Amino acid sequence: MAKQLIVERLREASERTQFLITTHSAVLTDRLKPEELIAFARADDGSSVILTEHIPQPRRHQ
Question: 31-47: per-residue pLDDT in tens?
Fold first, then answer.
């Protein structure tokens, strides 16, 4: 319940400002809409790349 409240507050704040949130919490990311999530990975050369394919579909927590 608390993480859902965090997501709702972030959505409200995003209407007024732009920000970046990072997390490793699957419980939190599972509550996001696909268009709200950008996934990054480390490339072999050490750079960061945006993953555009093979992003797992969110699981829905009750």
Answer: 888 888 888 889 999 99
